[in-house]
Every structure is written in structure tokens, then in C-alpha cells.
Amino acid sequence: MRARILLVISGGIAAYKCLELIRRGRERGLAFRCVTTRAAEQFVTPLALAALSGEKVYRELFSLVDETEIGHIRLSREADLVVVAPATADLLARMANGLADDLASTLLLATDRPVLVAPAMNPRMWEHPATRRNVERLRADGVRFVGPEPGDMACGEEGVGRMAEPATILEAIEGLLAEIRGEARLGGVRVLVTSGPTREPLDPVRFFSNRSSGRQGHAIAAAFARAGARVTLVSGPVCLPDPPGVHTVHVETAREMLDACLAALPVEVAVCAAAVSDWRPAHAAAEKIKKRPGLPPPAIELAENPDILATLSGLSEGRPRLVVGFAAETERVVDNAREKLARKGCDLILANDVSPETGVLGGERNRIVVVERDGRVEPWPELSKEEVARRIVDLVAARLGMGA
Q1: How many CA atoms lie within 13 Å of 61's alpha carbon, on the beta-carbon side?
Q2: Residue 359 — pLDDT band, cuts 50, 70, 90?
Q3: pLDDT value at residue 404
Q4: Residue 166: is the preceding peptide bond cis (ω within 30°)?
Q5: How far is 232 from 395, CA to CA, in rounded Å?
Q6: Cα(177)–Cα(31) distance, integer angstroms
Q7: Which residue of 42, 212, 238, 277 pairs with 197 in a disulfide if CB–CB is 3.0 to 4.6 A?
Q8: What is the mean predicted confidence (pLDDT) over 159-187?
Q9: Distance CA 68, CA 293 (A)
Q10: Alpha-carbon distances of 340 from 132, 288, 316, rounded to whole Å
């Protein structure tokens, strides 16, 4: 039987993405029933929604025909999952405060089903204290969020506020449905994931860092969450939204990342995907370092950063059952990964070639070689970082004896 999704569409230019969401969702076995606000119909027509969903579109709270045939209470509870996309600032505010003055808000107040929202709004509206309060209240009420994402907005501004892409929303839907059905094979397993670069300050305006985008680490955290794990993501500075269903801790430096990782323990699994800076300036200047005419540039003394992977692997108490590291290499990929595995004391190394011509750092695809303690090496084909993340979850589940 197809999973039934009640899709609530509010008024925003991102409403057009719902047509793609429905089309791709039906290809993946989902059935959609749509509810629109009056504002939504300024951007997408009920006719288009009905044609793609194969279902009647519900629009009015006080409709004698609709109330006779189905009723808003029944409509709100016949679905397996309620999805709000796009969720405007106005609708989030009404949800957070329990208002019910149209069909959409009444359904959301009356439903006893899980609710997933995909916010979409101007970046300043998203960052406004009122919106932040509403979001926190909704999270506390158990509402799940996917997005918003950074990028250019229809209003001409740039920032965090774009609705998540249909593929991302579908991943969140499928993960939540798996939880509802009890199919989450890693249910209750505690997982720690590190992601992104670190920044090591040289002075108040400069820092040492690297080209990591955090896409692979964030994809891994999201994949574990979809499998039912309780995930803590420790993220360096990235331009990515926090993955849905994940507790995210934001840090800047390697020392902050280590502290956050230790604070997240105990966990059963740790996946260290972050590109941590090996060194930092030994002394960060309190003021901006100035050019000195006629004098050579200042010498920069470096200090070694803590080794997060080795620290987690070497814990005498509270060591995770499985510690997985990454080896980002530009030469002798497998040999260097074997050396790193022995040196760090972890259980698995996922090696990849990050030479500039590969496009891995900052890109959307990756090519992994799994290196194990017993010497086995398993190369994976080039895959999207999302598919790599799914394979890592399969790998970890198998090692924990919880199914492939």
C-alpha cells in the first residue's frame, strides 16, 4: 500500500516546487492529497496539483460538499504523514500559536499524525527573533524540519531561506516514514558525526582552513538519522542547513570540535568525516596583522592541533564500539590510508582522492575505498555523496549486526 502524504501548500514562490515533489514522490510509491491556502493558488493552480496527484485538491474550510464527503478532521487523520511545503513565516507563526482560521491551519491543529515542514521565506524573516521563537516552539512540539537552504532568493536577496529541493524533502519524508513504520534498523543507536572544515584564527580577520564543504559529513548524518539513529553532528563552518532529525553542534576550531565530540559521548558509533586542520597558528594576534613597508612578512609559528580521530579511538573508557575515519589523500591513497588506520587506532578508514582534478572537495560526488584492519580493501564506484552516505550506514549496520 502506498504511503499517504497530506501536502499542505502555503503561499510562496517555492510552491511551484511542489509539482516536482509530487511527481517524483509518486515515482517512489507515495500518494499525495493536497490542501492549498488562498495565497498558494497565486503561485500554483489546483488543476495542476490535481492532475499530478490524481486526487481532488482541498481548499475551503467551510465547504458543504467537502465536509459532507470527508470533513476536515478525517482529512487530517487519514494520512500517514503531513508535509507543509512551502511553510511560510505566517503559517509557522499560526502553527506555533495554535491558530486555526482556514482549512490548512485547522488541519494542522487537528491532526494526530507526524508533521514535517519545509520553510521558505526571505532570509531576514527566517532570522527574525519571532520566527526563531516559533521554530523552537514547533521543534519542542515534535514538528520536524527540512531546510531552509542558502542561496539566491526570488526577492533578489541572498541567504538562508530557500525551500529545500524536492529530492531533499523526499529523503526526509522517507526517513520519517521508516521511523513511523518501525523500519528504522538503527533505532536508538547513538551516532557521532563530524563534518566540514575547521578555522584556526591567525588574527581577528584571517584564519587557516581548507576547501571542505561539509557535504559528505552532513549527508552521513542525515542518512544515519533516516535509519533511526540518534545523531549528534559536530560541524565546522559550512554553508549548509542542519540535516533534519539531527542534533547539530556548530564549532569553529579543532579544539572546539574535540570538546564537542567528547561532550557527545557515550555513543556506539563515531564517523569522523570532518577535514580538521592539522596545525594552527601558535599565537593568534589580538589585532589585524599589518603590512610593514620595507620589512619581510612576519614569521608564523605553528602548533599541532589535537587529533580527534586518534583521541576517540584511544579512549580507555567510553570508546565507541565502532570508530570510522576518513583519509583525504592526493597520492598513494590506499597505502596512506593503511598507515593512517594503524596510526590512529580506528576500526575502518574510508579513503578518497581529493586531488583538485577529482572535484571531490566542495563537489557533489565521491569515490571511496574502504580499508579495514585485516588488510581488506574494497573500492566503491564513483557515487553521489548521498549514496556514499547510504552505503556507510549499510556498512556500519552490518558491523553492528543490525542488518545490511
Answers
A1: 12
A2: low
A3: 47
A4: no
A5: 19
A6: 13
A7: 212
A8: 81
A9: 84
A10: 43, 37, 20
Residue 274: the pLDDT is 95
Instruction: Extract the C-alpha cell encoding 260.
Output: 564537542
* Spacing of C-alpha 318 from chain mean position: 27
Which residues, other chains included, contact 232 with Cβ-Cβ below 8 Å and sequence gap of 6+?
190, 191, 192, 193, 246, 247, 248, 249, 264, 267
All three cell numbers of 246: 539531527
Identity of the amino acid at 137: R
d(CA 264, CA 320): 11
Q: Report yes or no: 367 and 380 within 8 Å, Cβ to Cβ.
A: yes
pLDDT of residue 167 exceeding 90, the answer is no
Asked if residue 64 has pLDDT above 50, the reply is no
**Distances in whole angstroms, Cα of residue 95 to Cα of each of 10, 73, 115, 139, 323:** 12, 16, 11, 11, 41
Structural contact between residues 95 and 124, judged by C-beta atoms closer than 8 angstroms:
no
At residue 87 the predicted structure's pLDDT band, cuts being 50, 70 and 90, is: very high
Q: What grid cell was written down for 343? A: 596510526
Residue 74 exposed, middle or buried by CB count within 10 Å (0-12, 13-18, 19+)? exposed
Q: Where does the pLDDT of residue 364 fall: very low under 50, low under 70, confident under 90, or very high at 90 and above?
A: confident
β-pair partners for 378: 370
Q: Is there a catalytic annotation at residue 272?
A: no
Query: CB atoms < 10 A from the CB of 76, how many?
Result: 21
Looking at 47-56, 98-107, 178-187, 314-323, which range is the least confident one?
178-187
Catalytic residue among 155, 239, 261, 272: 155
18: nearest Cα among 1, 39, 34, 2:
34
Q: Which residue has the cell 515534535?
A: 142
